[in-house]
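Listing S7. Sequence submitted for prediction.
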Amino acid sequence: MILPIVAYGAPILRVVCKDITPDYPNLQKFIEDMWETMYSSNGVGLAAPQVNRDIRIFVVDSTQIFNNLEEDEKDKYPDGPGIKQVFINAHVKELDGDEWSYNEGCLSIPKVREDIFRSEEVTLSYLDENFEPHEATFNGITARVILHEYDHIEGKLFIDYLKPLKRKLLKSKLDDISRGKISVDYKMAFPK
């Protein structure tokens, strides 16, 4: 089932999400719905708060980015061919490497893209969809997508990294999004 994407301005996007246990109701169905929602809205990652749940789950499919790169760009990133993975109860253990800039967008903040600096590498502890524990290090584009989604379960948005002047310049666009004055080709839920 395709779930509506929660728009900027909704309080859920500012909540630090809770860890869950294996008995979380209908978890496998929820994960399937997250994948379906992400793909139907052309996303490469999706976090639970973006579909109105305050739990520490996000999904990432960075393989899509690599599939769409130009031939001369394929060697630019060290993490090809990318990953497709579920992250439950993720917690960052370490950030490493230089910060680098990349033009990011977000399904909850449609039609806004900005250059954001993030670390080259992230080490996470997390559970997979079978609640098996993992600790792994990711880099390149995959690390960036993970950090973007991780921020969502920490109540942060990519625009929080912008300088105050840049945020001020975006204010009217952000206000329009939170009022539902935007046209997108996927289902959204706007703050009341």
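Caption to Listing S7: primary sequence and predicted structure tokens for the chain studied. Residues 137 and 161 are 23 Å apart (CA to CA). The chain has four helices and seven strands.
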